[in-house]
Design brief:
Topoisomerase, domain 3, alpha+beta, 748 residues
Length: 748
Amino acid sequence: MAKKKKTSDAPLTAAPENTHIAGSGIVEVQPIVDTLESNYMPYAMSVIMSRAIPEIDGFKPSHRKLLYTMYKMGLLTGARTKSANIVGMTMKLNPHGDAAIYDTMVRLSRGNQSLLHPYVDSKGNFGLAYSSDVECAAPRYTEAKLDPLAGELFEDIDKDTVDFVDNYDATTKEPTLLPVRFPSLLVNNNLGIAVGMASNICSFNLKEVCDTAAALIQDPEHDIASTLLAPDFPGGGYVIYDRDEIEKIYQTGRGSVRVRARYHYDKSAGCIDITEIPYTTTVEAIIAKTIDLVKAGKFKEIKDIRNETDKNGLKITIDIKGGTDPDRLMNRLFAQTPLEDAFPCNFNILIAGVPQVLGVRRMLEEWTAFRVECVRRRTFFEKQKAADKLHLLEGLAKILLDIDRAIAIIRSTEEETEVVPNLMIGFGIDKTQAEYVAEIKLRHLNREYILKRTQEIEALRATVEDLDKVLHSHRRVLDIIVRELRQISDKFGKPRRSEILYASDLVQTAVEEEEPVSDEACTFFFTAEGYFKKITPASLRMASEQKLKEGDRIVQTIEAGNNRDLLFFTNAATVYKAKAGDFAFTKASAMGDFVASTLGFDAGEAPIYMVQTTDYSGYMLFFFENGKAAKVELSAYATKTNRKKLIGAYYEKVPLVAAFFVPEDREFFVCSTSGKRLLLHSGAVPLKTTRTTQGVQVMTLRGKNTIEKVYPFTEGMTNSPNRYRSRSIPAAGALPLPEDLGEQLTWQ
């Protein structure tokens, strides 16, 4: 039976039918939206919830599983053990492979220097966070244990403070969160990239975080910035303090923090030693960028730069030439290298399974709420335990009234199963108390032992009563949290590593992107093959002739200053920008710099015209084969940033015949392939605002004729210039007179 054709009024949302392909069978067609929802979305949620985004305790699942395994291995005290042992044990909770587990431990270790307050006390080569070349040793060679600070992560974890769940194969239990006694979420930096979202949390000083959390608990209107001064990074350096940006981070959880390196100048050795760098970069990145700038002629004061990092710590040494101002040089390096970098903040965390971007105040409030729950659960656990013990001792106290009678009841009971019921009847105690009495050793059935045990009753009653009051008093729970924060602050608090520099203090030492270039007089030479020379007048006077590549010729000679901007227009409708000071002075006897190589032209590009300027006044005049001319302001090529390449320099769909920089309007001779000449005044060409304008028709062309060449007009080129002038454009021009066919109108 033939299939019915679909009608044009079929619903657009109808699912496509399955099709049969020879050799493949039935091919099931799945709508892309349904496929994404059923397959990709669960994966995305898994990455967000179970891998990349930290929770309120400050840890991702991989961190939590590793640290909890080390805690259960007894590594909070005692000697270190091989990292391979830890990795193997952690796989009971984290089945994602030993390499991923070891990488997690490396980052948490003291030796790697990734964290401001490490949780793993390491021994051996754990790599260096600030160096991409220094890799960690294999886990069979390194050793580790938990750092004392990690004890604050697990305090009271056995007192039902957090929930436990089955591991992946239901053979053991693991905590869903750690009952951290301080806001670890802010104490150590955390980076996570999920699907459609990311998290990037900078680190803060432990003492400042604990003091701020305590102050905020006592006064919800507390000014956070007064106690939590600024982020504090493991690599040290200087945090450039911007109050508005800090307030933005504290309120919204988004923003950026500028960090710059710390250095000192060794005058005797003539070098600058950099000892602390921004957390976001590496030694190798800084050196590579600096070398590139030196090769480009940006830092002629630098003689050498090398990595002298050793066991004593990070050190980058820069040898500088005599007479160089080191502070001024470093300001320029801060502007152009990763020696000053920005840490982008994105405080995205999971709250009850929901990702939220929170400011510091909200994060501390959420942590406080989490910690309140932990303290309440711990208090209830301790109260229940004390109440159970009190209950047993109260039963023992009743036995104290008549020990002999208790012994007699036990001796006279014929069956063992009747001992507990008989004691319950004889002394009016419950089954739990009777079981406890029945299990007392014979040697303890004396008045002294029983008196000592029953003396605890009053203390236990007071304890239970006090714990019950804590459970019913939110204020007392908060006081306990504040007390614990003060204890941690005093015990583990350390001075800041990143010193604070106020942005207002840096105004006087504003960064200069480039060393000012002296405006000494010089002459620029630009050749048809794309070579550029910059020669001083003194050197030019001593020269006999210009050395050029065979077949090459000089097409532009310009007397200017050394501080000019140079624009090189290419045959690919692109302009490359440079500074005259970037090119070295040369002699007439040298060929000069090959511009395409020096400025990094793309393959097949060649320079066709050079412009020098200081203020980008004047305009460019472009002539095309189709008889049109485009007039564009030179300011259209000026940029606020130091962009070195601009595409779309002129209209490129029609071949370009000539380009000229025109400071002031003047006349040009336009010559066509038909032999006609037109003397055009540039003022007749309207000015356009866009670089890629097609221009206006200036010369009327017939058939397949095109513009062949254009050159500036000077007096004396022709005996009758009015013959070629026209009152309006476009104009056809005129054929040259016999007397004008000499050398006057030849291409210069």
